[in-house]
Design a protein that fits this description.
Blueprint: E1 2-8, H1 12-21, E2 29-32, H2 41-44, H3 99-107, H4 115-125, E3 126-128, E4 142-146, H5 152-163, E5 167-168, E6 182-185, E7 187-188, E8 190-191, E9 194-195, H6 198-206, E10 212-215, E11 219-226, E12 229-237, E13 240-252, H7 255-265, E14 268-269, H8 271-276, E15 283-284, E16 296-304, H9 310-313, H10 316-329, E17 341-345, E18 356-361, E19 378-385, E20 393-395, E21 406-408, H11 415-433, H12 435-438, E22 441-446, H13 454-464, E23 466-467, E24 497-499, H14 514-532
Parallel strand pairs: 1-2, 1-13, 2-10, 3-4, 5-6, 13-24, 14-15
Antiparallel strand pairs: 4-7, 6-17, 8-9, 11-12, 12-13, 16-19, 16-22, 16-23, 17-18, 18-19, 20-21
Helix pairs in contact: 1-6, 1-14, 4-14, 11-13
Length: 536
């Protein structure tokens, strides 16, 4: 196989790159994906995401390390293994983050990555269901949509937030610099009644182009080099080892787990780590797989009364009614993602802007490891620290590409992270006591009335908390010795090799990471094309 560009990974970033690079008909691109086609119906029905997070073939089946800070629990760590990657299995939330997130990136020495620099790339990607304005764009590839339905309990949550003193924002992606506590309705990566994964929005239109070759069910083993220049990749498919060569560049878009893992398998990383697992060192880059960040979530739940919730609508005759509503109108429960309402608030005195995110759902989970809704009516808020200080790693365990790497976010390792989760859980507890919500509450079920002290809140979080699926920062962008790529997303010290995905974030964005990943890929694709002097 031969092309101008080889893109490894058909997740959010890889689909963007495949689309944008092949806009030039003279540019040949090979897109290599370890998973298969995105044919499963649960991918396309928004509420189907609950069935996908531990799917045996559509995810990698990863688990976080037992010493990740969660009392020895090896929690599931879902990553999509299918066209669209994690955008095909996620909760579909489209929130870009605070402007300060990106200004911080710029302050760390990354030229061209401050808020004013990246906003045009957010807009370029977007095909907003509403009217175009200074925030949203129409005509881009990525379908985005406002929340269509506003159930009674979610309306009460918004009202309760205002009673808490939080500002109501009619558009959670229109956030001025310096904004304080606020609440609003989330936006979704949805087009009509169906999920708008990156595969649907970006890749599907590009697959009709003769200059794009999509190779599925192919596991990349390593990047191939001629000296310091990347020239190809080795991969296995149908039991055979194959090679693809690039005359231009190799672009790793395998995500915050896959991209550092492939670099390490290729001999690019910390020589001490590579030596321990028997991989010959090709290029010393100590930051590969380090600085790993993720948002850590713990939940507050309550049993409620006198109001309809998803718990009872998701079974029996209630579910039959919702299916009919979806078929006939394209609305209702089956169009919901992970949440309909998002609140941002400040709980740490040293924070300059809101530091916790709290998502609200008119649903609650039954006890146990399975994601199953509770039998009785309920509501839940999942809360996380927006800017975690804890840093972990992604490290190959062996030289075998089939072996899962060590995934260790070191949750709650930093004392400020522990204070933030305590403050966030306490704040949500007060939110539930605000009059608009309190009139529905029967009793708090999580953490429950026995949890009162700071130590008890931390113990509860460690025993029940989990990932928010925002893996990032493991191939950090920056000018310093521990960064992996420069501000053009080129791997330091090598030629013809870039990383373009969530792993290049210098610090995780404050909210959900899919929208920023799409932006990174849009901006990265333009950089690749500019370097090659693309004619389109």
């Amino acid at each position: 196989m031969q092309a101008d560009y080889i893109v490894v990974g058909a997740g959010s970033a890889g689909c963007v790159l495949a689309n944008r690079l092949t806009e030039d008909p003279a540019t040949r691109v090979i897109l290599i994906e370890a998973g298969g086609r995105d044919l499963h119906p649960y991918i396309h029905i928004p509420a189907g995401y609950m069935k996908l997070l531990d799917h045996p073939t559509l995810t990698w089946g990863y688990k976080a390390d037992a010493d990740s800070g969660l009392n020895g629990r090896e929690i599931n760590y879902p990553r999509g293994k299918v066209l669209g990657g994690s955008s095909s299995i996620n909760g579909m939330i489209y929130i870009r983050g605070q402007p300060e997130d990106f200004d911080h990136w710029g302050q760390l020495g990354n030229r061209g990555w401050s808020w004013d620099d990246v906003l045009p790339w957010f807009r370029k990607s977007e095909n907003w269901e509403g009217k175009a304005d200074s925030v949203h764009n129409k005509g881009g590839p990525q379908f985005t949509a406002p929340t269509r339905d506003q159930p009674e309990l979610c309306q009460a949550a918004v009202e309760a937030g205002q009673q808490m003193g939080w500002e109501y924002r009619s558009d959670v992606n229109d956030l001025p610099t310096g904004l304080g506590d606020h609440i609003g309705w989330i936006q979704q990566t949805r087009g009509g009644r169906f999920r708008a994964s990156a595969a649907r929005s970006y890749l599907r239109p590009a697959m009709t182009r003769p200059n794009l070759q999509v190779v599925t069910n192919a596991l990349v083993h390593r990047v191939l080099f001629d000296g310091t220049r990347a020239i190809g990749v080795e991969f296995s498919r149908d039991g055979q080892t194959q090679r693809a060569n690039a005359s231009g560049e190799i672009i790793l878009s395998a995500g915050a787990i896959g991209s550092p893992h492939i670099l390490q398998l290729s001999g690019v990383g910390d020589p001490d780590h590579l030596g321990r697992i028997g991989i010959p060192v090709h290029h010393i880059l100590r930051g590969v797989g380090q600085n790993f960040q993720d948002h850590f979530l713990a939940r507050v739940s309550a049993e409620v009364r006198d109001v309809a919730t998803l718990n009872e609508k998701s079974r029996g005759l209630g579910l039959v009614g919702e299916v009919m509503r979806y078929v006939l109108t394209g609305r209702g429960l089956l169009t919901y993602g992970a949440s309909l309402v998002a609140a941002s608030a400040k709980v740490l005195p040293e924070s300059a802007t809101p530091d916790i995110q709290a998502l609200f759902a008119s649903a609650s989970y039954a006890p146990g490891p399975k994601r199953r809704l509770a039998d009785e009516p309920g509501m839940t808020s999942g809360v996380w620290q927006m800017r975690p200080l804890s840093r972990g790693h992604v490290e190959a365990r062996s030289s075998r590409p089939e072996d899962q790497p060590s995934i260790n976010p070191r949750y709650l390792d930093d004392e400020r992270d522990r204070r933030a989760i305590i403050g966030g859980l306490r704040l949500v507890r007060e939110w539930f006591k605000a009059p608009a919500l309190a009139r529905y509450v029967v009793a708090e079920t999580l953490p429950g009335p026995d949890v009162q002290t700071d130590d008890e809140f931390v113990a509860f979080a460690r025993q029940t908390g989990t990932t928010v699926f925002h893996a990032s920062c493991s191939c950090r962008m920056g000018p310093d010795a521990m960064s992996v790529v420069d501000d053009q997303l080129r791997v330091h010290g090598l030629q013809g090799l870039r990383v373009i995905d969530a792993s290049v974030m210098p610090a995780v964005t404050s909210t959900n990471t899919n929208a920023p990943t799409l932006m990174i890929a849009e901006k990265g694709a333009a950089m690749v094309r500019a370097a090659a002097g693309s004619r389109v």
